[in-house]
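A favour, since you know our structure tokens better than I do. What I am after is a single protein written out in full by you. Could you add the entry underneath, on a fresh line?


***
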Amino acid sequence: MRLKGKVFEELGKTFFNLSLLLIGTVVVQPFVSGKLSLTLAFWGIFGFFLFIGLGIFLIDYGERLKEKEEPKEE
């Protein structure tokens, strides 16, 4: 079974949403409550950029697969 481009796009959107959840729970919430440490901020920001990068890559990869799947009309 081959995975279609839409699957990768949706997975990329999920990673994008997870990055927003991560930055909110690991960085913003502790900052507001005054319990933010440098280590927590580093890992939260690192995870945010990791998930954002992975999400963008998967969305782009899904778009490229969709372009290959669709027949070209001339």
